[in-house]
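Person: I keep going back and forth on a fold encoding question. Show me how you would write down a chain together with its backbone fold. Please set it down just below, with no commentary around it:
Helper:
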Amino acid sequence: MIELTNISIVKKILEEHGIKAQKHFSQNFLTNKGVLDKIIDSANLKPEEDAVVEIGCGLGVLTQELASNAFSVIVYEKDVNMMEIAKKNLSNFTNIEFLNTDILQAKIPSFIYKLVANIPYAITTDILKKFLIEEKNKPRKIVFLIQKEVAEKICATPPHMNLLSILVQVFGKPKIIQTVSKNSFFPAPKVDSAILKIDINVVPLIPHELSSKFFEIVRAAFGKKRKIISQTLAQIFKIEKSEMEKILKTLGINPNARPENLSIESWLEIVKSQPLNATK
């Protein structure tokens, strides 16, 4: 196996192919073996059964470890040059499938899988939206190396909830495994990172057919974050504020709360409420 966390080897491979890390692809190569091991450990892979989806392979540093610990790996890589380098680096592996495509446009496997990746920070929300809302076949587990600040937002609790934390926590239980210094990458990004694990709920808190409606309502509410929830929801559902207050009180929700104060359970009660469904 190639020691792809060795910064000298990374530089040599890049020089040999005459390429530089592409900022628009958020290409920062992981050079910390301890962090790599922690990602693999967090994924809890079983070589005899686990299929893994990876987003962006870079030179293949994470792909190599995934292929060594899982039954199969499907890699979605948008940068064809980087994909070809990774294929060359990992040519000894027979359980890796490389797909040169944009993950946001890609078709996701129909079988059971885990999602493990060092993802482009700029499209973190889009990736989570795709796999948690749009895809009916959701991963069993997600392990991402992402921007630390974003990981902290995802793990937020009331009164600091946000659209991203609700998006994730409706479908699973997020946990920050460890923070990662920006010096663990080459070239070093401007911010620190974190390993985030999301254990996907076996039984969804919300049916797939209600997912789009749920986030349409939550997104609209957070678009008016400074307003109290009864006023915001009254505008969304096109009913009188006084009527909205009665509905919220019936559900055991404070009408004067703001969006960031509400728990996942409260949002689910609002969306599933029969009086509100009748107004849509």
Summary: The chain has a mean pLDDT of 93.
